[in-house]
Amino acid sequence: MKKLFVVSVVAALIAAACGPSAAEKEAQRIADSTRIADSIAAVQAQQQKIADSIAAAAAADSAAKAQEAKAKAKK
Questions:
Q1: Whole-prediction pTM value?
Q2: What is the per-residue pLDDT across 7-16, written as a single tens digit (0 to 9) for each?
Q3: Which of 4, 8, 10, 34 has its CA 20 to 30 A from that of 53?
Q4: CA 74 to chain centre
Q5: Are 20 and 28 in contact (CB under 8 A)?
Q6: Cα–Cα dist 43/62, whole Å
Q7: Percent of the chain beyond pLDDT 90?
Q8: How far is residue 23 CA from its own chain's centroid?
Q9: Which residues contact 20 (CB under 8 A, 6 or more apart)?
């Protein structure tokens, strides 16, 4: 039983020693933050593109209706 405890403690220490260092953790945190910021920017750009498309369609629809009204007024 004592050997099993010692072996498990040694295994736990080896597992803890094999983990990433503080510098690696910080680099990963920065990379994750950058990736998240890039994802947010991409979503915002897509939303802006959709909003611009809707505005262009609305403007074209308004122009078409104005043209149609002008044509009816001439008749």
A1: 0.56
A2: 888 888 887 7
A3: 34
A4: 53
A5: yes
A6: 29
A7: 45
A8: 25
A9: 28
